[in-house]
Each structure stands twice: as structure tokens, then as C-alpha cells.
Amino acid sequence: MEDALAELDRRKIPVVLVSPLTRAEIEPLRRKLGNSHPFVAENGGGIFFPDGYMNVKIPGAVRKTRYLCIDQGRPYEEVCAALDEIAEQCGVGVAGFHHMNLREIADNAGLRPRDAELAREREYDEPFYFTSADDAGIARFVEAAKETGFSARPGGMFWHFSSGSDPARAVRTVTHLFREAAHIKLRAVGIGAGPEDVEWLQAVDQAILLPGKDGVPEGPGANPAKNIVLAGTPGPGGWSETILSIIS
Questions:
Q1: Which of 82, 171, 190, 239 has the greatest number of CB atoms lying within 10 Å of its CB?
Q2: In this structure, are residues 80 and 120 in contact, taking their beta carbons and an 8 Å threshold?
């Protein structure tokens, strides 16, 4: 990926990370990549702009340490309280990160202890799984969450519970601010790695989905939408190949 990142940096093209990871998990990755641009955390729960990055006013932004942040998602404490309340009302058992100690998070998520610690520093979105529920109970829970303004979505390893988190809306917001700051027409290009990225990929001008190792999209319901192009190579190599092809 180094060649592609170096070329993007040379051309002053920003790379905005859009991730289900927490801010605490994304920060080491940004340091490793030498990335100093805005990023979207926890499935669109928060949009983080490094202090002094934008030369335009960021509507609704609040200061969080060295960032200006747009909070799209409701606070984590409210999310966890609602998860427990709705689960009790629906008669289903759930186990979220806020129910687990560090070792349990590491074991359930397949993470090293230090990585589990970063994953636990949540602000908007609660990963959880059902400990006791049949299909009817899960359906009741999902509907009850929706009726109270929350979202319960299945993921690869965990379900995710949140309110207001929206990666597509976050991408549109970031794109609008870049265009407003640049005063020129910009093209937003998105590269996703799995079916969970399809939602926000539909918010960019040019969308590419990286295939799985066998050359096809991975995961259930992974066929990309009509406006999303499937790349030819998976993984970081596919990301670099795609970037260099687009900007050449």
C-alpha cells in the first residue's frame, strides 16, 4: 500500500477512513499509515476532524481532545441502557461489551488484550450477541428497537446496537465539507472491503468493492449494488491497484 499512499500524499488527495472501529482503535492505524485526515468511527457514530484541519465552519461540531467531532450517534451510555431495557421488555438475553470484562471481550472478539482495551473505549455503538432468544424473540427485539429510535443490525461476529449512527450520511457530510473548503468540483471515491461497506459506498461518486480471496464478494448478501464496481484483486494489494489505476 505504500506506493499508493505516497502517490495520494504527493497529489494532496485526502484518505478518509470509514470504519466500524472505535476512535481509540483507529488512532494507532492512522499513525501507522501516516494519515492526518478526518475519519469516521463506529459505523458512522462520529466524524472526527483533526484540530485546524478544515478552513470552513463545521456545523454541529464539538471539541473532543484534539479533534472537532460531529456526533451522529447517541452517547454510548444511553445506547447500553436502551439495549438492556429493550432486551428485558422482549424477554431475550443479550451480552454486550458493557457486560464483559477485558478478558471476555478479548476471547469473544478474538483480540489481544491491548486491542480489546481499545475496542472497549466506545462512544456510540454497542456490539452484542444474543445469549437466549429464538427467531421470534430476535424479531421482536429488532422491531422494538426500531420503534424507539434505535437500530439492531447483525454483523460478522456481533450484532450492533446504536441510534443515529449512519456511515452513508457521515460520508456525505465529509464530502460536502471538502467541497465547500476547496471551492472546486471534487470526486469522492470509495473503496470497501465487504458487504458492510455497501451502504456508505452508495454515497460516493465512484464506488469499488474489493473481492474476497476467491474473487467474489464475501459474506451474506454481498453482491454489490449496480453502481458499485467489483475490483479484480482482494486485500491491500487490490486497494493499491485500484487507487493507482484511478489516479493515473
A1: 171
A2: no
What φ, ψ does residue 18 adopt, rounded to 5°? -120, 115
81 and 149 belong to one structural domain: yes
Please write the tens of the pLDDT for every residue from 151-194.
Answer: 999 988 899 999 999 999 999 999 999 999 988 889 999 999 98
Distance (Å, whole) CA 131 – CA 112: 23
Q: Which of 162, 171, 214 is nearest to 192 (CA)?
A: 171
Q: Which residue, chain included where needed, has cell 493515473?
A: 248
Compute the average pLDDT of residues 119-137. 97
Do 65 and 5 reside in the same domain of the chain? yes
Phi first, then psi, for residue 86 (nearest 5°) are -70, -40
Angle, helix 235-247 to helix 2-10, in steps of 10 degrees = 30
pTM of this structure: 0.91
Do residues 177 and 54 lie in contact, with contact meaning Cβ atoms separated by under 8 Å? yes
22 neighbors 50 (Cβ within 8 angstroms): no
| Residue 37 and residue 16 in contact, taking contact as beta carbons nearer than 8 Å | yes
**Contact (CB, 8 A) for 205 and 188:** yes
CA–CA dist 248, 239 (Å, integer): 14
Domain count of the fold of the chain: 3
Q: Report whether pLDDT(85) > 50.
A: yes
Residue at 182 is within a domain: no
